[in-house]
């Protein structure tokens, strides 16, 4: 594969113009959109508007005048088509961790006589931590975490299991679970299924309704480009809205928040999942970021994502200097998300050296270098440049330099 093949692909790329909708630093190839998406120009503009004009000028009247109060639902409506969810099943609020708490606790309460939450070893830690916290709060009789090896998930789905909680795309390896099949197998045993879409939403097509998922959560600041600490989203299938009661019964989830009733009465439908006042500035930034997706076909985006990861991998394999980097992501693109991960004993220092030379991946302890591929703002030619720089860092052993060994607080 030559640079000219890649520039030709860029010329034919139907998504090429999307790059213009982002602020990107010069001379940087950003392969970390799976940790923090790049800044959409619309978000930069919107934050000015919300802060200076709306808050600065219209003050409290903005809740009505600028529909701040509608943001959790309005923003959710922009996410719903990206995850295959029909109307009124998605809401934007809080973080994934908090939304997991709400959904897990509520799902456990729906499953009388069952107490096990099955999850996977190697899942993102917060998912497992939240179950451990619920176990400590409710006691083991009501909640017990059973986190099993990937190969043992199916055999762990027994009639004692209340909830199956999985991350659709593994954050370390990028392996994709078969959502449809696992959801069906679990539901055949009466198990409720909760999917974490942190590395799926905005990266590949998700079909929650078609897979008959019960619940899901996902991230605003990764592939959705909502900015650091952007609010998360929560999905609950309509069929559960009447039976479910989430425990964080705050006033924003009340059926009539401004009646100031003393007795909690949950709002009907998805709104009952709100807790406190939405973070308006952050949510407006996410809302604007989602404009980038309005005319996106997720299947077309997926095609480019696969082509980018494949080009990167092909170029990598042409370079003997890169043989030391061991691929831990699936080779089969049909089960690989929008990322490639490699292990190396000097992974941390290699990441630092790459960043210093204008290629930004990230490091995941203890020894993983993770490259994320965001089809909206990456070009095919960037794969070539990134590999060139990677070859330089590896063949000249630049990563052994002292300044690349020091660990920062956030890695
Ligand atoms: C990034 C990520 C999270 C983040 O959780 P927050 O509570 O929103 O910080 C959760 N789960 C997975 C799988 C992730 O990758």
Automatic annotation (TrEMBL):
Pathway membership, UniProt: Amino-acid degradation; L-kynurenine degradation; L-alanine and anthranilate from L-kynurenine: step 1/1; Cofactor biosynthesis; NAD(+) biosynthesis; quinolinate from L-kynurenine: step 2/3
Top-rank lineage group of the source organism: Bacteria
The keyword Hydrolase is assigned to this record: yes
SUPFAM superfamilies documented for this protein: PLP-dependent transferases
NCBIfam families: kynureninase
Assembly and interaction partners: Homodimer.
Name assigned to this protein: Kynureninase
Organism of this sequence: Salinimonas marina
Organism lineage: Bacteria, Pseudomonadati, Pseudomonadota, Gammaproteobacteria, Alteromonadales
Gene: kynU
């Amino acid at each position: 594969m030559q640079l000219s093949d890649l520039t030709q692909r860029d010329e034919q790329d139907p998504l090429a113009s999307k790059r213009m909708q982002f602020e990107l630093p010069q001379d940087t190839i950003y392969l970390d959109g799976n940790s923090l998406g790049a800044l959409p120009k619309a978000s930069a503009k919107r934050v000015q508007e919300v802060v200076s004009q709306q808050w600065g000028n219209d003050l409290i009247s903005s809740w009505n005048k600028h529909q701040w109060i509608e943001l959790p639902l309005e923003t959710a409506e922009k996410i719903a088509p990206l995850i295959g969810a029909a109307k009124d099943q998605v809401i934007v609020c809080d973080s994934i961790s908090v939304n997991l708490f709400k959904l897990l606790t509520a799902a456990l309460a729906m499953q009388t006589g069952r107490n096990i939450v099955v999850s996977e070893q190697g899942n993102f830690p917060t998912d497992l931590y939240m179950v451990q916290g619920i176990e400590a709060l409710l006691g083991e009789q009501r909640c017990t975490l059973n986190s099993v090896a990937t190969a043992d998930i199916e055999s762990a789905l027994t009639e004692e299991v209340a909830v199956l909680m999985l991350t659709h795309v593994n954050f370390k390896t990028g392996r994709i679970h078969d959502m449809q099949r696992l959801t069906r197998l679990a539901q055949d045993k009466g198990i409720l299924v909760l999917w974490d879409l942190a590395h799926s939403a905005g990266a590949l097509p998700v079909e929650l309704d078609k897979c008959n998922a019960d619940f899901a959560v996902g991230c605003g600041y990764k592939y959705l480009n909502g900015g650091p600490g952007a609010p998360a989203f929560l999905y609950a299938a309509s069929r559960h809205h009447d039976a479910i009661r989430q425990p964080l019964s705050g006033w924003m989830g009340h059926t009539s928040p401004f009646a100031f009733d003393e007795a909690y009465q949950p709002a009907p439908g998805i709104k009952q999942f709100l807790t406190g006042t939405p973070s308006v500035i952050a949510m407006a930034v996410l809302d604007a970021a989602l404009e980038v997706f309005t005319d996106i076909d997720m299947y077309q985006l997926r095609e480019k994502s696969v082509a980018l990861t494949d080009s990167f991998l092909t170029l990598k394999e042409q370079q003997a200097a890169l043989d030391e980097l061991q691929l831990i992501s699936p080779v089969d693109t049909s089960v690989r998300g929008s990322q490639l991960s490699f292990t190396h004993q000097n992974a941390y220092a290699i990441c630092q050296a790459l960043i210093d030379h204008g290629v930004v991946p990230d490091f995941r302890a203890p020894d993983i270098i993770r490259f994320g591929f965001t089809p909206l703002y990456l070009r095919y030619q960037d794969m070539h440049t990134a590999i060139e720089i990677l070859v330089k860092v590896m063949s000249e052993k630049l990563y052994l330099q002292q300044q690349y060994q020091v660990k920062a607080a956030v890695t």
